[in-house]
Amino acid sequence: MPNAFGARPPPLPITLTPEGNGKLKRSIFLWALAIATPIQANAEELLVRVSGLESTEGNIVACLWTSNDGFPICGSDSQDITSVPAAEGAQLAFTGLAEGVYAVTAFHDIDGDGEIRRGFGGRPLEPVGLSNNPARRMARPKFETAAVTLVGRTEIEIQLR
């Protein structure tokens, strides 16, 4: 069929013959598969070594954070929670993470109830610590103070106080 200028458009480069039709279907299938497959980012790992334990009773609990929402109280707002039996130099691992900025809170759960015991005014009665080991202040710590950049396999140490 001629176009507006009276010329016929060039033929399509695809020839639909019994032999070529299979190649076309295979090409379309592979193209569709390629765009439908999600691109997997490299899984990164954050290793946390904990020091400053007063005893080996109970567990060490660590919580991973990606923002200031709920930080630093371990619970439903943290991205991940992990624990190991208490031991000096114990290591906890957060795996399968994307590169980015994270913070970690850790505490020595001496009585094994999974929560930080608190005293008057909400002050922790069990040893606690944050990534970057910031000085303890009267005000609640901020995510930015404890933030670490995760690129590849990253190791940090948290000193419990």
Short description:
The protein has a single domain, classed as Immunoglobulin-like. Helices cover 14% and strands 32% of the residues. It contains 2 helices and 8 strands; from the N terminus they run H-E-E-E-E-E-E-H-E-E.
Question: What are the main properties of this structure?
Answer:
161 residues; alpha+beta; 2 helices; Immunoglobulin-like; 5-stranded antiparallel β-sheet; 3-stranded mixed β-sheet
Provide a descriptive summary of the structure in words.
It is built from 2 helices and 8 strands. It has 161 residues and is of the alpha+beta class. It has one domain: Immunoglobulin-like. It is elongated and about 90 Å long. The protein starts with 17 loop residues before the first helix and ends with a strand.
